[in-house]
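My main concern about presentation is that the manuscript never shows what a single data entry looks like. An entry of this sort, consisting of the sequence and the corresponding backbone structure tokens, reads as follows:
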Amino acid sequence: MSQDPNAFAVNFQNASFVTSAVKPKGYPPADRPEIAVIGRSNVGKSSLMNSLFQRTNLVKVSKTPGRTQLINFFDVDNQLSVVDLPGYGFAKVPQSVKRQWRPMIESYLTQRTTLVACLLLFDIRRIPSEDDLDMWNWLLHFDRLTVPVATKSDKLSKQKRRNQIQRIANVLDVPAEAIVQSSSKTHAGRDKLRQFMTSLLWSESEEESLEPENESPGE
């Protein structure tokens, strides 16, 4: 029997920090779907998450690129986890930290069984960098459902936004319509991203309901 999708509505108003981790042993229990937020340093990950949660400072916003060095887990309405991954491409971070970054992120992205999708953020004012493309292609290679999000859309005029979105789409080889334009200032794109996240909860529940029940011996 199909379940009511309204049962999985998430209002994104009851969000809380859960824990920070570097290695899998520090992750919280894998008991709900997770969505990872990824992007280069200072692209606006923390601001986007605060906008989604309708909070001003639940996720700490730093003006110093590369400040976030841990994988941070947030609970949303006891139904969904949103995971803030450390930004890549930071120039002023010690080499020892950079060497730690890659295995930390790869372990999470390849091994976390409850990861259902990723939001890969791009600054709308810039063409995707080599690091951006490496991450985009890496996620595609491992078949991770990934939504491209163009942040800071309020920084450009309507015509410049349209032009930049098309440029980014050309580099990523996706339709321009596939890119979500977002702004933590105007909250553009917030409803679209929330609907996407809620739809993942519904999809996960549908898959679980289709799994056959274990039969008892002799049946």
